[in-house]
Amino acid sequence: MNILILTYGTRGDVQPFIAFGRGLVAKGHDVWLATSTRFEGFVRENGLKFFGISDELLAILDTPEGKEMMESTRNIFDMVRHNITLAKRMPAMLRKQLDDSWFAAKIAKPDFVVYHPKGIAGPVIAEAYDCPAILALPFPMLVATEDRPQIGFPALPFGKGYNQLTYSIVNTLTSSSLSGPMKAFRKDHDLPEAKTYKSTSYPDGQRMPSMTCVSPSVVPEPEDWDDMDRMVGYWFMKNTSDYRAPAKLAYFLANGAPPIYIGFGSISGKEPEKLANIAIEALKATGQRGILATGWGGLKPGDLPDSILEIESAPHDWLFPKCAAVVHHGGAGTTAAGLRAGIPSIITPFLGDQPFWGKQIESLGVGPAPIDHKALTADNLAEAIRTAITDPVMRRKADALGARLRNEHGVKNAIRFIEEIAAQHAS
After folding, report:
1. Is the CATH number 3.40.50.2000 carried by domain 240-406?
2. Among 160, 196, 310, 347, which residue carries the largest CB count within 10 Å?
3. Which helix (H) or strand (E) holds 180?
4. How do residues 6-56 score in pLDDT, each as one tens digit?
C-alpha cells in the first residue's frame, strides 16, 4: 500500500511514527511521512519519504510567549484559554497545515492514512482519496471510555456518565477550533459540507478506528472498547546498534557507577539556568553521578563537577539502560523509554499529558511521586533520587515492567491492525 503518515509537534510526536514507518517499509509498504520541516533530516536518515509541513506553530512555542503558554497549560481549561489567546493567528496556521498536508497527499496518492491528532488533515484526505484511515494516539486522550475520565480532567466520584462526558467535552472543543479553517478549506476544494470535524470520525460522521500507542501493561485497555479501538503498545526505534557515543560520553559511562539521567526534552521553562542548578545541587547532595541533557529546550548548566556530564542528546533506548534512574518532564516518549529500560523514573511535569504520566508512574510503583516543576527544589529532587536508587521494591517493579515491555511488539501489532482495516475496506 501507499501509506501517508501525518504527525506534528515535538520530537516525541515524530519519533514513534518514524519507528512505525520503518516497520511498514520492512513489510513492503511505500511510506510517506509528512511533518514539521525541522524534522526533515531525522525522517530521511531513517529511510522514509518526507514531506514538510509549515513550522510556524512550533516556532511560536519556541518564543518567550510560547514557553509561558506551555508552562501554564495544566488542564483542559488552560488549553481553552490559550486557544483563545492564539485565536487570531491559529486559523491561518491551521490552514497552512491543511494546505501542506493536502499537497503531500497529491504526491503520495495514499491507499491508507495514519494520522496523529495534530495531523488534522487525516480524515479529509481519507475522504478525498476514498481510502481507509486510522487515528494514532500517543496517549489515551480522545477515545471515550466509561473506565476513567479524559486525562485533562480530575477523577471524580460521579461514575461512568462523568467519565464519558469528559471525552465529549474535549472532542467538541478540539473540533470547534478546527471548524472555521476546515469549512473554508473544504469550500475551496469543492468538498461537500462535513457532518463533523472530530478527529475520532470521518467527515461523513462514520466512526474512525483508533490505535493508542501505549502498552496495556502501563495503561490497561478499557473494558468497554471494541475491536475498532485498540491499545497496540509502544512504538520504539530499533537502530541503537548503529549509535556511536561521543568519546566523552563513552568514557564517562565506563568509568564510574551508573549515573542519574536528567533531561526535560523540549521543555525547560522560563528559567533554564535555575532548573539546571537545581539538578546539579540535587546530584551533589546525593553523591550521585549524573548526565545532564540540554536538549531542544535549551537547559543551561553552568560549571560542572567531574561527576556530572553535559550532553546535548543521546538515544534514550541506548542510554537509559546504562543509568540508575531517570529524571524527566514526563513526555509520553521519554516515559516509555524509561519504563522499557527497567529503571525508576522521577517525573517533573510541566504541561499537557505529563501530570498523567507522573501519576501513572507512581501508581505502578516504578517511581516516586511526581514533583510539579513549579515546586521543584534541590532538596525534594534529592529526596526523590535517594528513593529511586535505594527502594528495593520500586527497583524490582521497574525491572519487571521493563522486561515485559521489551517483549512487546507495538509496531507489529499496529501493522496487523491497519492491514486488517485495509482488507475490510477492500472487501
Report:
1. yes
2. 347
3. helix 159-188
4. 999 888 899 999 999 999 999 999 999 999 999 999 999 999 999 999 988
